[in-house]
Amino acid sequence: MSEEKKPNNFIEDIIEDDLNNGLSNDKLRFRFPPEPNGYLHIGHASAICLNFGLGEKFNKPVNLRFDDTNPAKEEAKYVDAIKKDVEWLGYKWDNLCFASDYFQELYDWAIQLIKEGKAYVDSQSSEEMAAQKGTPTEPGVDGPYRNRSVEENLTLFEGMKNGDFGEGEHILRAKIDMKSNNMLMRDPIMYRVVNRDHHRTGDTWKIYPMYDWTHGESDYMEQISHSFCTLEFKPHRELYNWFLDQIVDTDKVRPKQREFARRNISHTVTSKRKLQKLVEQNIVTGWDDPRMTTISGLRRRGYTAASIKNFAESIGIGKRDNLVDMNHLEFHLRDDLNKVADRVMCVLDPIKVVITNYPEDQVEMLQAENSQEDESRGFREVPFSREIYIEREDYREEANKKFFRLKNGKEVRLKNAYIIKGEGCIKDEDGNITEIHATYDPDSRSGSGTEASMRKIKGTLHWVSAAQALPVEVRLYDRLFTVPSPDTDKEKDFMEFVNPDSLEVITAMAEPAMKNLSIGETVQFQRMGYFCVDPDTTDDKMVFNRTVTLRDTWAKLDA
Fold it and tell me: What is the pLDDT of residue 335?
């Protein structure tokens, strides 16, 4: 039976309708247009997957275009980071473009609008302009400079371009309709003076185009057929079309703007401004802090590109903004890591166990599978000796029948090793357990095929040989915010909800084979979760980030 065809989302339906209504298939072209003023986050990842996914579905090119029209906030480092993110997600762009590539064309078109009486230089203060623009319920009024002559507008605009004026002295506005019900149509700003060097054009330009003027015209110059953006730009569509009306050639493709809903993620923020605040106030260590839901932060934490793409596909494309639970993202992460991550043993809260009947000087190498689900991943050797570490919580002197870990007089299996029985413990003067004593069954080695090795034991523990243990730094990351939606409370600043326990740093004991792991490699610490080798790792110290726990630990807290 053939595979069932996946139904279209409404964005794909729009494209199909356009094709059915006469748009030539070879005219399809898409774009992803980030601003290089910060790092991309999980919301951008959904937009990347949408636009590049459309390219894959329709087998058409997708441009990566940087809307770099504000040199006060944009930097080349953000361009490099965004390119890396897109490539890491597994996508390839057709043309690498920049809005700054079109500054001359945009300027020439602006001159054309001035000559046609459709743009003018306004010399009011920002406060004066705001007052005359009106409100959503009251129409605006014409400003005192709205009817300047074409000659005066051209002279002033040329002066703006040449750097004759300071920031805020003059702006260029489109001359549309000060009484429009859509406030964006009330003579929007097209150009402002910015006395900053641009990351690509240097000091060539003293004026920079606004987003609304730049975006549609850039789409047109690149012959983008469909320009998809988030819902907050829906009111901008009328202006997008008005600007295109002024310059389009009927023989060329006219871009179509359509909008889709944001997918916000619980327990985080996705505003670049708010993410920047977290960085600036040292709540996190940088844009790639593993607690951040930037793509670079998720990558450093150990997320896989496949898990993010699967997540984006699962939440789909909607017409209404909503909040997606972080657990949904983590579900796809666990699902992917379960398939691709090797299993290793690392004890996070170690306490020593002395196996009193095991030979003191003996060390034997045991076989441990790298994946219980995939035998093709092979085996590795782990050392076993008289003294081992186990998790402190895995031992109790006495416990009820539901405690299936190590306790006095009861047996437990050591993963890939032997069955041991608790015999007692040593305590310090405060009553804290400092050492556990146990005995082992020499005939019970896992995989040996002996009758003893096949005994059914309910509890299995991970462990590490003490003499060969590798001390590692482990960073236990948790939710960055204590509430699902930290930036929607109108009476509180989102910073009030920062989780003070979002990071705990411990020293753990790992099996020696983990020394061979590479930076960025993610493994499962058996029974404890998935962990990734952090770039802070050196020859002298390995550092691991907790990527995600094996099970959701937040569901009950949020209930």
Answer: 96
Question: What average pLDDT score do residues 412-423 get?
Answer: 97
**Residue 40 in contact with residue 160, Cβ under 8 Å?**
no
| Pairwise CA distance, residues 476 & 506, whole Å | 8
**Same fold: 103-211 with 346-462:** no
**What letter would DSSP give residue 7?**
P
**Within 13 A of 488's CA, how many CA atoms are on the CB side?**
11
Cβ-Cβ contacts under 8 Å for 428 (sequence gap 6 or more): 434
Q: How many CB atoms lie within 10 A of CB 154?
A: 15
> With helix as H, strand as E and coil as C, how does 185-244 read?
HCCCEEEEECCCCECCCECCCCEEECHHHHHHHHHHHCCCCEEEEEHHHHHHHHHHHHHH
Give the residue numbers marked as catalytic: 35, 262, 272
Q: What is the DSSP string of 106-144?
A: HHHHHHHHHHTTSEEEE---HHHHHHHT-BTTB-----T
Task: Break the chain into its structural domains and give their ranges.
Answer: 103-211, 346-462
Furthest CA-CA distance within the chain: 101
How many residues does the structure list for the chain? 559
Rounded to 5 degrees, φ, ψ at 426 are -110, 140
For residue 559, pLDDT over 70 is answered with: no
Whether 94 and 32 have beta carbons less than 8 Å apart is answered as no
pLDDT at 553: 62
Give the CATH fold of the 346-462 domain: Ribosomal Protein L25; Chain P (2.40.240)
Residue 557 is predicted with a pLDDT of 47
CATH architecture, domain 103-211: Alpha-Beta Complex (3.90)
- Please write down the HEC assignment for all residues of 316-331: CCCCCCEEECHHHHHH
DSSP 516: G
Q: What is the pLDDT of residues 247-295, one digit of tens each?
A: 999 899 999 999 999 888 999 998 899 999 999 999 999 999 999 999 9
pLDDT digits (tens, 9 = 90+) for 79-106: 999 999 999 999 999 999 999 999 999 9
Residue type, 542: M
DSSP assignment string, 432-446: -EEEEEEEE-TT--T
Summarize pLDDT for 313-349 with one digit per residue, the tens.
999 888 888 889 999 999 999 999 999 999 999 999 9
Using alpha carbons, select from 99, 370, 86, 341 the residue that is nearest to residue 216.
99
- Those residues with Cβ within 8 angstroms of residue 41's Cβ, 6 or more apart along the chain or in another chain: 270, 272, 275, 292, 293, 294, 295
- The packing angle between helices 237-245 and 211-221, to 10°, is 60
Percent of the chain with pLDDT over 90: 91
Instruction: Name the band, by pLDDT with cuts 50, 70 and 90, for residue 490.
Output: confident
CA–CA separation, 512 and 16 (whole Å): 56
